[in-house]
Amino acid sequence: xxxYQSRRLSREPPFFGTGIDLxxxxxxxxxxxxxRRIVAMGFEREGFTVCQADNGEDAVKMAGTELxxxxxxxxxMPKLLxxxxxxMLRNDKRFAxxxxxxxxxxxxxxxxxxxxELGADDYVVKPFEFHDLLKTARHHMDKxxxxx
Amino acid sequence: MMKxxxxxxxxxxxxxxxxxxxxxxxxxxxxxxxxxxxxxxDAGTGIRDLGNHLLKEFPSQPLTLHVFISHTHWDHxxxxxxxxxxxxxxxxxxxxxxxxxxxxFDKILKIQMDSDYFPxxxxxxxxxxxxxxxxxxxxxxxxxVKHFYLNHPALCLSYRVNDGKRSFVYATDNEPxxxxxxxxxxxxxxxxxFPTYLDExxxxxxxxxxxxxxxAQYTNEEYEEKRGWGHSPLESLVxxxxxxNVKNLALFHHDPLHDDDFVDGMIRDAKNLITHFKGTTECxxxxxxxxxxxx
Lengths: 148, 295
What we know:
Chain A is α/β, with parallel strands linked by helices. Helices cover 40% and strands 16% of the residues of chain A. Chain A contains five helices and five strands, in the order E-H-E-H-E-H-E-H-E-H. Chain A has helices spanning 33-45, 56-66, 82-90, 109-117, 130-146, and strands at 25-29, 49-53, 70-73, 99-104, 122-125. In chain A, strands 2-1-3-4-5 form a five-stranded parallel β-sheet, sandwiched between helices. In chain A, helix 2 (56-66) runs parallel beside helix 3. The longest helix of chain A has 17 residues, at 130-146. Chain A is globular, with a radius of gyration of 14 Å. Residues 1-18 of chain A have low confidence and may be disordered. In chain B, helix 7 packs across helix 8. The longest helix of chain B has 17 residues, at 260-276. In chain B, the strands form two sheets. Chain B has a seven-stranded mixed β-sheet with strand order 6-5-4-3-2-1-14. In chain B, strands 7-8-9-10-11-12-13 form a seven-stranded mixed β-sheet. Chain B is built from eight helices and 14 strands. Chain B is globular, with a radius of gyration of 19 Å. The interface between A and B is medium-sized, with 22 and 25 residues.
């Protein structure tokens, strides 16, 4: 299990939508080390506290202890698939305000539809531009936070 | 020695008829014998004949069979209800496959044999059935079994079996990431290498295999119309096989629209491509009844 909290790199507090936690926490789950680290660097720069896991089983455990505002979830991973992780988290009321975004190289409609059915807020196909992911993440965090 | 025999070579749907008699009309099923071990890859309609053959070969001896399912689309599981060794209490079947997206592998197999679809339920199969959702690589006796997720609109596994000296790879229903992801991105950055990187992982998985049973359902021209359907154009499969230094390639999962003469043409094209890529891979077309021995 990879577990650390990143140092905040930016001095200025970033802008998040109304009601969003000013010190948001993101859990990035991907078995591709380089990919996970690149995404982590981007979120660190934006002032997020970053947690990382490289398999689905650790992701579920870490989500329970860290209670992140945002979870970025790969689909095909060892131990538990992203679909299974998403389904488990969405059945847990503690994550009702947590945005879950799937990030996968699988770009087929059945996968995208099933992720939505299992409660994912969005699905981004790899490779993507970081600022697009960030924009999507902020949108869904805002929506989840403001949802009654 | 490894001995491979094809019992079903067709993709998508069983295609019996005069025009497919040479390569066969049954859907995916490949048998691998290695010492006393019997491995079966996929349970398309071809598994019915394999089951009948096993009953004749082993009329009284209890069998332990390892059945590896690539994914649970119909053409890879539809023959299982007709696999007679699964109904004999003396036999033990281990079924391996990927977890479903929101249902267990076990449940998907049960659904196929729900009474709305088939008159006999999975639970009525009297053999000792053990269903395993694959989460990690493992060994069976001296044989190492590795798995790799392919790019297909389902959770779809490729399998590699190594006995220490020889290796066999079963990889069907895989679309190159270069085919699906380049159409999704307009990035003019290094990120566009990402699909190539993913395909290279597949090449690594197959590296040095003595035999690759690989899917190339479409010609390059057909692929342009069927991009995103989860299957390979011939050129990609051959290129990957050559890059992986695969010794023998069996073209598999023939398209139901391809008659025997058309498949002959694809094999010729594959051989020309191997030469073009300066490879040394030998290529054959998978046909029902064909046996390939890896000495």
